[in-house]
Amino acid sequence: MENIVKKLDLTSLRLFVAVCQEKNIARAAAREFITPSAVSRRIAEIESTVGLPMLIRHHRGISVTPAGEVVLRHAEDVLASLESLGAELSSFFSGIRGTVKISANLSSIVQFLPEDIASFKRMFPDVRVELEEQNTIEVIDMVARGEVDFGICNDIPETDNFTKLNYRADRLSVIMSRSHAQAGVAQTSFSSLLEDSFVALRGDSALTALLNTKAKALSQSLNVTIGVTSLDALCRMVDAGLGIAVVPHLVGEMYVNTLDVAVVPLKDDWALRQQVIVHNAGAALSASASKLVEFLAEGA
């Protein structure tokens, strides 16, 4: 009996259950689209494996022996478990269950992604989203290395090597003390601020690199007096009177009512930025990742 699991196959068990449910070999055969003789042969194989009769055949159909009742009960459990397995696996294929790994830049995480992912999770609660913050260049590198399903970053020339969809647009603004000479203007230009001291994100921040590039194009340099690692710290340094800072407009607005600062939009063309979703063109996204990409792109 120790080899019974190896010898009983799922097709035979399914046909045995059908016969027991129909109480008739011919009706079970018709239900399973197989010949009655093939069903009888399968039942005989089970009886040979178990070493006991499973069915009693008579002119009105069949009845199940006590040993057959035991096999029937376990066969139904096995088939039900496999159906449950199939249903759970199909949820991965359909995208309603799975894990999605994203790398995103600070601007998109602070301004847009929390609300967007929360909305997505309300629709697909069984999809797990793993989000990692990186600067734009590292986002692109992580996508290229296949470490994440897709990335969200600024639309820069390096993103042209990937499949790319628009996500959100944001505008850069200047956050400054309310006592600053330009605190009350409707908008300002970057060039008019280059005599000021700046607080900036340090390291390889894409925003700081952009500001340095634009200052250099004006034959000037960015006078950075202090570098910080987060937009929150950036705004608090401005509130402390350590300089002005360029931030995404929505980030600056978050602090207007809590800090002694003003937010003035930059009117320069480059201050309007496009955030994009990027993923490898040659690699197919999982069903869950595809659903999230579609959801985020539709929000754009």
Automatic annotation (TrEMBL):
Residues 8-65 form the HTH lysR-type domain. PROSITE patterns: HTH_LYSR (PS50931). InterPro entries: HTH-type_LysR_regulators (IPR050950), LysR_HTH_N (IPR000847), LysR_subst-bd (IPR005119), WH-like_DNA-bd_sf (IPR036388), WH_DNA-bd_sf (IPR036390). Pfam families: HTH_1, LysR_substrate. SUPFAM superfamilies: Periplasmic binding protein-like II (SSF53850), Winged helix' DNA-binding domain (SSF46785). The keyword Zinc does not apply. It comes from the Bacteria. Keywords: DNA-binding, Transcription, Transcription regulation. Belongs to the LysR transcriptional regulatory family. This is LysR family transcriptional regulator.
